[in-house]
Amino acid sequence: MSLLIKGGTVVNPAKQQNEIADVLVENGKIAAIGQNLEAPNAEVYDATGLIVAPGLIDIHTHLREPGQEAKEDFHSGTQAAAAGGFTRVVTMANTTPVVDNAPLVRGLQKQAELTGVVKVEFIGAVSKGLEGKELAEMGDMAEAGVVAFSDDGHYVESAAFMRRALEYSSMFNKMVIDHAEDVTMSKNGHMHEGIVSYELGVIGRPAAAEDVAVARDILLSEMTGGHIHIAHVSSKNTVDMVRRAKAKGLNVTCEVTSQHLSFTDEYLREYNPAFKMAPPIRSEDHRQALLDGLKDGTIDAIITDHAPHAFEEKDQEFCCAPNGFSGLETSLAGVITNAYGDGKLTIDQVVYAMSTRPAELMRLNAGVLEVGKDADITVFSTTEQWTVDRNKFYTKGKVSPFDGMTVTGKAKLTVVNGEVVMKEGVVLQ
Question: Cα separation of 245 and 225, whole Å?
Answer without folding.
Answer: 12
